[in-house]
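Record type: ASSEMBLY
Status: queued
Input:
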Amino acid sequence: SVKTPHNFNAGPSILPRSVFEEASRSLLDFNGTGLSILEIGHRTPLFEAVMDEAVALLRELMDLDAEQEVLFLHGGASTQFMQVPMNLLDSSAVAAYTDTGVWASKAIKEAKLFGGVDVVCTSKGDHYTHLPKDFTVDPSAAYLHLTTNNTIYGTQWQDLTPFYKAHVPLVADMSSDILSRRLDFRKFGLIYAGAQKNIGAAGVNVVVVRRDLLGKVQRTLPTMMDYRNHIENGSMLNTPPVFAVYVCLLTLRWLKGIGGVDVIEKENERKAALLYDTIDALPVFKPTVAKADRSRMNVCFVMDNPDTQAEFLALCQQEGMVGVKGHRSVGGFRASLYNALPYESVVALTDLMKHFAQKKA
Ligand code: PMP
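Status: finished
Output:
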């Protein structure tokens, strides 16, 4: 018999079982209509209710204010690397960017197509194993961009004070830690996140944008790229990715049902603490990033003796630990502990690590 896998995938990644069950049912019969969720028009009251509830739940879970608009858009987070500067950065203006990993540097590359970019700090020289905290931002910058959690390296800003002190609009890529912890989301000018980790299914991303930041650039924007058009049309300027939005709705309902962001934050802290404590306690494993910058979403580590790496990976495979191999650019191991990953999966992984350590002692 096949063991129930423990899913540590980095994204797309684990979602609640109840979400998969209800999504499956709705593929055959959505809300007792006898129709599949895949065969109803998006401009029907049936689907409009899905979109409205998803937006309302996100607004509630993030505790947003009335000036912040919630959008569900196509294209993944990578499209936001381009859409953000297109909407917010004039060709004669400068935006400040923090370079904390490959995703951040991809955002920088796109921004340069539209205006000036001031890379205010980077930890590239140290292979992004820590977060560069000393930076100054010109008060005339159009915005300051950060990646709140660096999925590949396993670093996460724990203290956002340096950003709040910049006094320019904050733009954040929260793809890999949105809704995992309480942040003051009202402090952000624009937030974007691919949905495929904590929000739902791949194929859609969430954008939260302050209305007053829009309409200030000189350039003419293509219709589909202008956030204002999506706001006016309630994320239905064209056909939205209906199934992906529906899976987001189910996941957001689940999160609200278990108590919301504050409850999941405690649970995420508990999971991460168990895994980091285990890494720190066992000499055969070595953490890879600065302690203060450790991510609670993606935990990266290597073996003290690299020759044993393949052996541990094989053991993980044998015991049903899925997705623990590190990103191809970093190597080693990465266990992603997103919202839907149960504590029991971390217990199973840490038990396996202890067992392996004993064998090697
Ligand atoms: N930003 C971050 C922090 C990510 O982790 C990822 C993907 N893992 C992306 C951006 C790119 O997302 P997408 O594939 O949705 O374009």
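Annotation: The pocket of 4'-deoxy-4'-aminopyridoxal-5'-phosphate is lined by residues 11, 76-78, 103, 147, 151, 173, 175-176, 194 (CB under 6 Å).
Annotation: Residues 261-281 form the longest helix (21 residues).
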